[in-house]
Amino acid sequence: MKKTQYLFILLIAFYSCNCEKTNTEISVIPKPLSIEVTNSSFKLNKNTTIVFQNGNEGFETVALYLQDEIKKSHKLELKITRSDNQPSKNTILLLQDLKSEFGKEDYSLVSTKKSVNISSSAPNGAFYGVQTLLQLIDINKVDGKIEFSHIIPGVRIHDSPRFNWRGMHLDVCRHYNDKEFVKKYIDLIAMHKMNTFHWHLTEDQGWRIEIKKYPKLTEIGSVRSETMIEKNWDEFDGVPHGGFFTQEDIKEIVQYASDRFITIVPEIEMPGHSLAALAAYPEYGCTGGPYEVEKTWGVFDDVYCAGNNNTFEFLEDILAEVIELFPGEYIHVGGDECPKEEWKKCPKCQKRIKEEGLKDEFELQSYFIHRIEKFLIANNKKLIGWDEILEGGLAPEASVMSWRGTEGGIKAAKMGHDVVMSPNNECYFDHYQGEPENEPFAIGGHTDLSEVYNYEPIPSELNAEEAKHILGAQANLWTEYISSPEHLEYMVLPRMSALSEVVWTEPQVKNLDDFKSSLQKLVLRFEFKNYNYRPL
Ligand code: ACM
Ligand code: ZN
């Protein structure tokens, strides 16, 4: 059934059923498209079996995930069986339904006394059905201890995400977080039915990905000698800060994400924000250095030399290794905050401007991104960059991530380019989420839970055709002032829960009060999984 038909049925249901009951009994975030509560409920016990159909490995991954979650919450080791015959009783069935008009991420969930049936056309939908199933299980805190019910209330749910790009970003460069933490962050993305992890891997203050051809990138570029002290620009802590992900780590994380139906978009910054790389290989900067891995925060004049062909060879070698590691269709190349000061003074850059007939340094930046895009397209990848890549002319097939408000996104969509919305007012989770005097020190700004919840990713300036270019939205987490996992979790939770409804739930179904009420249960799940969230 098409989403519009479901919305119609939903409206009828709204006028014909006792919806208050639905809202108060069912606490699922992001809120599903339609929920009908019935009076037949399922009881989970040690004999409950998870069944998936023969011959479908993706569904087995989902079955294993569910088994593991139930083991953690209920200490029950559910059996998994593979069968084409639908067993009759006490089963959780993962059914592949190729006859209905299910999109890849859609699912339906029907729970009765006999079974819980999750139907979808692909394992992605089954995985989201499992996320819903887990949240249907009531959770309470009794005498300081988290307890899970064994009852899955009787429901008929049909669900379908609004956007294809439902993302979270993480900067592991300003402050490094290790492999285990990255997995814990990916678990959060999965729990919220999001599907994209934008992994910011290179910066002025640290290079965090092993590149075999250029070992100095991590030998030198992954460590800064010390870090400026919070709030105080000329005082330093005297403590080296470093860390990086080996290619083996990355393969493990990519697999971990893929098992949760999450695509990783790696970001390799260029031409700016690259001092750590230049500290290791100064020959690719305009002056030749020396440079050092940056110890303070901000935007720095030393960037890659756009006049030197060897710079492009260096970056293409790096990207070739990155492409091998990340199977997703997109590579993010940054492109933001690239000062033009050195390019103005550099004979090689000026020669390039003349030879290529470029108007100015903005067009030189555009030349840079075009050239890299050609390489990516030749390697079957798509380029995405921050909205500065519009300046001086957008590369022919590039997608744009709109962060300096929405204008960049609007302009790119009107030009027929795909866009991911991440405007700083609503989607920067490094901002304060309350009064600064009551919050840990932050970079500034103010983005509270309701602001995130009420964000609408489709700008009103776009017509229906242009709006199709809005792939979705994501929140960004820059870590200049976030140096511990606990603080990081505090910054994303529960704002990420609000964002999950922005990107998943149809606006007709969203409701801030329902969301806040459901959040009371979701935070208990955070607590059970040892996440530090900002108290409600
Ligand atoms: C950015 O926040 N500089 C993309
Ligand atoms: Zn130069």
Per CATH, what is the topology of the largest domain? Answer: TIM Barrel
Counting DSSP H or I runs of 4 or more residues, the number of helices is 19
Could you tell me the strand content as a percent range? 15-25%
Helix content: 25-40%
Strand order, sheet with most strands: 12-13-20-21-22-23-24-25
CATH C-level class of the largest domain is Alpha Beta
Any idea how many domains? 2
User: What is the C-alpha radius of gyration, as a whole number of Å?
Assistant: 24 Å
Q: Which structural class best describes the helix and strand composition?
A: alpha/beta
Uncertain spans: 9-24
Major sheet, described briefly? 8 strands, parallel, barrel
Distance from first to last alpha carbon: 38 Å
Overall average pLDDT: 94
Task: Lay out the secondary structure.
Blueprint lengths: L2 H14 L2 H7 L8 E4 L4 E2 L5 E4 L4 H18 L4 E4 L8 E6 L10 E5 L3 E6 L2 H14 L2 E4 L2 E4 L2 E2 L2 E5 L5 E7 L7 H13 L4 E5 L1 E2 L2 E2 L8 H4 L3 E2 L3 E2 L2 E5 L4 E2 L4 H12 L4 E8 L4 H6 L28 H17 L4 E5 L6 H5 L1 H9 L5 H18 L3 E5 L12 E4 L4 H8 L4 E3 L2 H4 L21 H5 L10 H4 L2 E6 L9 H8 L2 H10 L7 H17 L8
Parallel strand pairs: 3-4, 3-5, 5-7, 12-13, 12-25, 13-20, 20-21, 21-22, 22-23, 23-24, 24-25
Antiparallel strand pairs: 1-11, 2-10, 6-7, 6-11, 8-9, 14-15, 16-19, 17-18
Helix pairs in contact: 3-4, 5-7, 9-12
The chain binds acetamide and zinc ion (ZN).
